[in-house]
């Protein structure tokens, strides 16, 4: 597995690039054709995902249509969660075990190969890519630790609702999910911090990634922002690098969120 630093946008005033970090299978893994070993936790996640998707089925009826309404509300809530949290959870899901193995090998003074983060050389540099990862995990560790605590307290407060019969205790289930989500994002942030501290993260150029952003279509400009990612480029990225459907969703969320941020800031530019 390798991480792609997908260019998202650039703030022209500071010349700072924003990235979405996503996981892709390495060339060796693709050529081997051997399916990756699925952990017990991941199997549970897959089962929960299948159950959630099932709530949105239009051919299944429920009292007051609560299944479809719950699914629609949940999708809106998930879309509002920061794309940075989603990217961290995706890294934890795909690379959590590999990162732990890398740290263990380093501590045992065995030969190790750094975690590679591939960037677009036409847009970024090794230093900027590594610094972007460092800034992401530096702010994420205390934030997710704090939010984990708040959500665990919420679970305790709302858990008495389980005594109400025939009505799902959705608030507690939601807070449990958010607590688990913050735990995963915080865990992978701590792991990446340790790897960075021991120079076990290496930024390497990927010309193919850069070529996808050097097409004939100019970058869209909105106020102080220059938008690299578009829905068309997302489709090209997913097809070329054979990215998962979850990565596709994460990229679309990042695009929607940065566009919403740009639109929110545009009126302020004329003041």
From TrEMBL:
<dbReference type="GO" id="GO:0005743">
    <property type="term" value="C:mitochondrial inner membrane"/>
</dbReference>
<keyword id="KW-0812">Transmembrane</keyword>
<dbReference type="GO" id="GO:1902600">
    <property type="term" value="P:proton transmembrane transport"/>
</dbReference>
<dbReference type="Pfam" id="PF10173">
    <property type="entry name" value="Mit_KHE1"/>
</dbReference>
<keyword id="KW-1133">Transmembrane helix</keyword>
<protein>
    <submittedName>
        <fullName>Uncharacterized protein</fullName>
    </submittedName>
</protein>
<dbReference type="InterPro" id="IPR018786">
    <property type="entry name" value="Mit_KHE1"/>
</dbReference>
<keyword id="KW-0472">Membrane</keyword>
<feature type="transmembrane region" description="Helical">
    <location>
        <begin position="148"/>
        <end position="167"/>
    </location>
</feature>
<dbReference type="GO" id="GO:0006813">
    <property type="term" value="P:potassium ion transport"/>
</dbReference>
């Amino acid at each position: 597995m390798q991480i792609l630093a997908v260019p998202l946008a650039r703030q022209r005033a500071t010349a700072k690039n924003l990235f979405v970090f996503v996981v892709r299978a390495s060339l060796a893994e693709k050529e081997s054709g051997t399916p990756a070993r699925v952990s017990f936790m991941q199997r549970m996640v897959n089962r929960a995902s299948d159950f959630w998707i099932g709530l949105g089925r239009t051919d299944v009826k429920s009292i007051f249509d609560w299944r479809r309404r719950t699914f629609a509300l949940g999708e809106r809530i998930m879309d509002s969660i920061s794309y940075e949290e989603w990217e961290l959870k995706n890294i934890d899901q795909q690379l959590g075990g590999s990162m732990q193995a890398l740290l263990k090998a380093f501590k045992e003074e065995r030969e190790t190969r750094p975690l590679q983060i591939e960037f677009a050389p036409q847009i970024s540099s090794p230093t900027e890519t590594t610094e972007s990862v460092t800034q992401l995990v530096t702010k994420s560790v205390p934030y997710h630790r704090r939010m984990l605590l708040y959500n665990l307290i919420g679970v305790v407060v709302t858990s008495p609702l389980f005594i109400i019969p025939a009505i799902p205790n959705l608030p507690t289930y939601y807070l449990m999910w958010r607590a688990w989500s913050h735990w995963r994002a915080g865990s992978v942030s701590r792991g990446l911090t340790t790897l960075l501290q021991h120079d076990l993260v290496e930024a390497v150029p990927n010309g193919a990634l850069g070529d996808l952003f050097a097409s004939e279509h100019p970058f869209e400009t909105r106020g102080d922002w220059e938008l690299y990612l578009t829905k068309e480029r997302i489709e090209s990225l997913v097809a070329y690098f054979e990215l998962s459907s979850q990565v596709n969703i994460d990229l679309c969320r990042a695009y929607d969120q940065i566009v919403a941020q740009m639109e929110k800031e545009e009126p302020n530019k004329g003041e």
